[in-house]
Amino acid sequence: MTTLFINIKELLQVREQTPHFLAGDEMKTLPVLKNAFLRIEDDLIKDYGVMEDLTDSTADVTIDAEGKTILPTWIDSHTHIVYAGNREQEFVDRINGLSYEEIFNRGGGILNSAKKLQQISESDLFEESKKRLEEVMLQGTGALEIKSGYGLTLEAELKMLRVIKKLKETYPVAIKSTFLGAHAFPAEYKDNHEAYIDLICNEMIPAVAQENLADYIDAFLETGYFSVAETEKIMQTGLQYGLRSKIHVNQFTAIGGIKSCVENNALSVDHLEVVTDEDIEVLKNSKTMPVALPTCSYFISIPYTPARKMLNAGLPLALASDFNPGTTPSGNMNFVVATACIKMKMTPEEAINAATINAAYAMDLLESYGSVTKGKKASFIITQPLSSYYQIPYAFGSNLIESVYLNGKKWS
Ligand SMILES: N=CN[C@@H](CCC(=O)O)C(=O)O
Ligand SMILES: [Zn+2]
């Protein structure tokens, strides 16, 4: 089945060849075709060009996109959308003056979510999680990574990962799964970290690999959570089982974690609200993608990733939502892109590149997602009529999406 979209006001992120990823000044350019057409066949992009070059207008269906913008769906390379219940009480506690750290030290935070997750059935967890997935699909997300990490026991971690697998089998989005057993130390291991690291490395990772439930491995490398040495052990054990790492690091403190992640060939380092000059140096010329999560900074009022400093130093940057019950109860990538522009001073071009091309790199999906390229998946957003794509971050509170196509089919 062939569908032809004609008279597209702006067709964004059009690339004959996909770059490896975009870094520094390369991120300033967003290739745009004005007054364009786009032809898709089944689930793939077949052709595109400017209207005056459209010689063959045969198609099973033709859709007039006059005044509208078409862009690839967002790629959200860092989420925790599989969780139970919510943490709205902690939200109010923070308004009343408690910090994220104080809430965690009182047994809240990740351990609060773990308690709820351990109690919920797998089918109820699927039902709760699928609502969030359907919501972000309507908001234009066409591929996402989902982490475990609220189980913190072998059984509960496997429950989360099986739910992720079922979501993957049920919906027309690309999903990558990450094992995050090292999200926090359960209370019973508070004074015996070594035993929990052993449990992760000797029992959890082998069991996850045995059922083929994860693509990547993660840890919360942070003061008060997992040390550099503990995270290294987890990254290295993961590699033995074919799991490359994507690590939570430098959210609150810089303790040498980024260097260790780069040395252990991490695919991405995520959060980076605190970034030192040394961190920037080690990321230069590495294959590790830095990932910023600006709506986490927004929600819990912590510094934003210093994007300008990083881009000016020639680094690449990806953007993701971090959708989770504690620090970012939203997976709206339109708002992520807007927040990156408004608060991190990224230009619209840089932010869109960061949420498409570079985000696809951060979850090994560049071959099939992230740009309008022949042979890639026909997953894209059609906007309402816009004066220009600048509206996407500018009108940050408006829903500008008219429809979303996922793998060649109209989803909404
Ligand atoms: N910082 C670590 N993990 C999650 C949030 C965990 C939570 O509070 O539930 C994050 O990326 O922000
Ligand atoms: Zn996270």
UniProtKB/TrEMBL annotation:
Lineage, top ranks: Bacteria, Pseudomonadati, Bacteroidota, Flavobacteriia, Flavobacteriales
UniProt family annotation: Belongs to the metallo-dependent hydrolases superfamily. HutI family.
Matching NCBIfam families: hutI
UniProt catalytic activity: 4-imidazolone-5-propanoate + H2O = N-formimidoyl-L-glutamate
Binding site for Fe(3+): H78, H80, H248, D322
Keyword Zinc tagged: yes
EC numbers: 3.5.2.7
Cellular compartment(s): Cytoplasm
Any GO molecular function: imidazolonepropionase activity
Binding note for cofactor: Binds 1 zinc or iron ion per subunit.
Residue positions binding Zn(2+): H78, H80, H248, D322
Name assigned to this protein: Imidazolonepropionase
SUPFAM superfamilies registered for this protein in UniProt: Composite domain of metallo-dependent hydrolases, Metallo-dependent hydrolases
Entry-linked Gene3D superfamilies: Metal-dependent hydrolases (3.20.20.140), Urease, subunit C, domain 1 (2.30.40.10)
UniProt binding sites for 4-imidazolone-5-propanoate: R87, Y150, H183, Q251, T327
Organism: Paenimyroides ceti
Pathway: Amino-acid degradation; L-histidine degradation into L-glutamate; N-formimidoyl-L-glutamate from L-histidine: step 3/3
Keyword Metal-binding annotated: yes
UniProt binding sites for N-formimidoyl-L-glutamate: Y150, N324, G326
